[in-house]
Give the backbone structure.
Amino acid sequence: MTALFAIFLLTLLVITAFGIVRATNLFVAVMLMGIFSLQIASIFFLLDAADVALTEAAVGAGISTVLFLGALALTGPEEPKRPHGRWLSLCVVSLTTLIVLYATFDKPRLGDPNAPVHQHVAPWYLENTPALIDIPNVVTAVLASFRGYDTLGEVFVIFTAGIGVMFVLGTPWSRLSDARTPLDEAKGLRHHLIPRVVGHLLVPFIVLFGLYVQFHGDFGPGGGFQAGALIAAGLILSALLDGERASLRVVPARWLFAMVALGPLIFSGVGLATVLLGGRFLDYSVLSADPVAGQHLGILLIEAGVGVTVVGVLVSIFHGFAAREQKN
Amino acid sequence: MIVDVFSMLLLIGGGAFVFIGGLGALRMPDFYTRLHAASLTDSMGMILVLSGVVLQAGFSLATLKLLVIFVFLMLTSPTATYALANAAHLAGLAPRLGGSDDTGAE
Amino acid sequence: MFYAAAIAILITMALALARALLGPTVYDRVLAVNMFGTKTVLLLTVVAFLYGRPDFLDLALTYALINFIGVLAVLEFIQNHGLRQRGQDTGGGRP
């Protein structure tokens, strides 16, 4: 029965995708992308993939919408008309779609118990997680320990992306708080009492919930990426309510800069420590006398690193957009 | 058993309110009336559905989390509705008053 | 009984999507996104109990938070940041 729910949501997803592509006003497209992200998160949830659903909701529906709006504020909401037709791109996309569809014929059916991944890969992880790592959430065990190199790469990707976006936006961290022109003070959330009161009430709870998600990642859906996105959303909310200048007094740009760099530093530092202690790179078992406790410590440290980097990068990008806009 | 019957009634009632609110949001003629219809799903529909689920959960951590969700939604949905109505009003979107359907003419 | 509530919520999601695709003014679309978000929260609580996994309620709380922040951010940007000040039509500020 829940398969029918997933099929229904997938149909809505296709309709939303058509709506996004056909919208000429980019603001409409951003709104529809928010709905798209919520639909995909619901589908992930119906397919029983809770960590992915959490990450998609936190990053896609919340932060991505805010960043798209920041970009729209800089560029303008109308899509420029193309002078020539789009037949070449239509042909290329159709050809690629047909090739990909043909490739999926060799794929095993979704959830097929005889698929190779369910014969070899998944049982190995399910058996060895209680023995070697002993945390209830196997996804976190795979992400943080068994496939630690992949997560190291992801942290460096986020780090590089943050630096790249700040380069493109053109405002270095040291100049994020130099507001040139005051914003129009008569409008905006700063002068509406009710959203301000409710928002101020909620920001500490959002940050607290983000910390809960960070440390609860061993036991339920959660972890560094989701927690980082949540805490960043809370900080962005306070920036929306109080203005960028007040927000940059609370969390200065120097700290954001340090947070962006701290994540990869912690991660590589843990790897280096494990090598110095005699094990392999990112083999957390050597971090403590008891290998399982060492694994717990290692997972705690690297998830903290991931969370710190995600918060730093997302809030920095938000302030970068706002600073760029004030320069215009 | 009684708990199951109550929770079933609450869930069905909640589902009905959610559906009616959604239908109103689609069919109402003006933005403010649509906003009012949609807020029906956020308030009454949410209360009934969450109460139905709480009755199924009994005394457990899940009930505590559901109560937190409840308090949170009670705080934020009316605020979001207010902010939306305020933004539309400040932008100059005027409610459609009078109307061609109800002036007594056939 | 969970199935009935879940079906009602899914149909309302479709109605919200219709409003987002149709809505003549930009505020209609923001309304649709907000409604879709809260319906997702409700769907998640109901389905979490359908699946017998009450520890997935963290997701519902996250969605509620993110939905609220998203709507406030959209309203802030509509009112303040360049989308109106350039005199460009954001898809209809007037009916």
Observations:
- Chain B has a mean pLDDT of 87.
- The helical segments of chain B are 2-27, 31-57, 61-90.
